[in-house]
Amino acid sequence: MSVEFVPINLPSKCKPYPNVEAVNIKVRPLKGKDEQLIAEMGNGNPKKKILEVLRNVVQGIDPLRLTVGDVSYIILWEAINSYTNMYPLSLTCEHCLQEINVSVDLGRIDSKELSDEYKIEYTVDLPTKKVGLRLLTLGDEIRMMSWIQNHESAYLYSFALSMIDDLDEYARVLVLEELPTKEFAKIRKYHAKFEHGPDYLARAGP
């Protein structure tokens, strides 16, 4: 049975992807072979499996280039259109400690679009020089998972990957380690300002 690809309106509005037309990005619902890849996700590098799935279901762009927000949006789209919009959850009441079974309507989860203030060439002034910044991608998340296998945390490494300068990523981590928090806040503010994708913290139930 043929499953057709359909257009999808990404929350980034394709602004981070030079030379990519939004009308050319399409997706299709999951097939059995895609679900098998999902079932094979382990503790190694599950983001690599997500990449394999997206390479099957996405047309018009290399999934490695997709921003983290767009990837989350596509995953949500797949959950709704490949299965059902109702997702069961088991929660524990913090007062009585009783387990409560609820259903979340995934279709009611709001999505935040990338701000119109976004521009590809974005710089911040740090104490010693200006540094370019970019949004994190699925490719970056895969590199972060590999980093975690050899280091305790990828917190600073994730911000280092978003920096554009003449240093390698390891040197950037060392810079961030010594960066005053008031200056580091400029980098964090950039990512907060241009956050996009599903808002899982918003109320999705009735």
Query: Structural class of the helix and strand makeup?
Result: alpha+beta
In this structure, how is the largest beta sheet organized?
3 strands, antiparallel
Mean pLDDT: 90
Quick one: how many beta strands? 10
What share of residues are in beta strands?
15-25%
Topology as H/E string?
EEHHEHEEEEEHHEHHE
Shape: globular
Query: How many H/I helical runs?
Result: 7
Fraction in helix: 25-40%
Distance between the termini: 36 Å
Q: Which segments are poorly predicted (pLDDT under 50) over 5 or more consecutive residues?
A: none
Q: Please state how the strands of the largest beta sheet are arranged side by side.
A: 1-2-3
Rg, Cα atoms, Å:
19 Å
Structure description:
This protein is α+β, with helices and mostly antiparallel strands. The chain has a domain at 122-193. 37% of the residues lie in helices and 17% in strands. The strands form 4 sheets. It has a 3-stranded antiparallel sheet. The protein has a 3-stranded antiparallel sheet with strand order 7-8-9. A hairpin with a 6-residue loop joins strand 4 and strand 5 (99-105). Helix 1 runs antiparallel to helix 2 (46-57).
Topology of helices and strands:
Elements: E1 6-7, E2 26-27, H1 32-39, H2 46-57, E3 58-59, H3 68-82, E4 86-92, E5 99-105, E6 111-112, E7 122-125, E8 130-133, H4 138-148, H5 155-161, E9 163-164, H6 169-178, H7 181-193, E10 197-198
Helix pairs in contact: 1-2, 2-4, 5-6
How is this structure best summarized?
The chain is built from 7 helices and 10 strands.
